[in-house]
Amino acid sequence: MFFARNFLFPFTFVILLLTTQPGFPFGSERGDWWLDLLGIVIAFFGQACRALAIGQAENIRRGGRQKKVSAQNLITHGVYAQTRNPLYLGNLLIICGLGLIANSFWWYLLMLPLFMVVYVSIILAEEEFLSREFGQNYANYCLSTPRLLPRFTGLWRSCTTVTFDWQRVLRKEYGVACSWMSMATGLLIWERWERFGYTERAAQINGLILCLGLIAFFYVGTSRMKVAGKLRS
Prior knowledge:
With 233 residues, the chain is mainly alpha-helical. The protein has a domain at 5-163: Four Helix Bundle (Hemerythrin (Met), subunit A) (Up-down Bundle), CATH 1.20.120. The protein has helices spanning 5-19, 29-56, 86-102, 105-144, 155-160, 166-196, 202-227.
């Protein structure tokens, strides 16, 4: 699961996109607009959670070492003082947000439970590794910090007592952010095209296509800045 996690989501996304039809919640187009908005807000909260973790923890190895679970140090500061898995929490929020935008029966029945199983499996495997690696220190950390759902008491204090590196966030997260934002925009286009056709929703679809272009521009621009060394911490 740890090795395949980066490939599983886009694969599942494409399969479900090709095999399901979008539906109106309770038959209401207005309800669908609100559901889309809620999904976008939840996904942005997920991205914010990931940004907090990556911007504060200098020694995170994304993908582990050689695609296996790895840790140089036990990170317990910043947002990691409120939840032991802020990155996976962020991923699950993004997935839930996209699921709400899609609003398809099969997304609720298959995608969300599937990714819950995937991330719970990864978390348990990482916990086993960290327990062996750090022993009693990790056991004490588990006693004081929730596994996934954050403890909000003291969150502001935890986040303001560490240095936050925006350049690191841009350097590490632009690909993830552009990926899910492109998927969300693609879902919004797909909904309108499938339900109404291009002609009836041309203005909305063209506006969303423009958003895709802006996301692509941001991706290319950030990628070039990274290669040029302009995002070094």
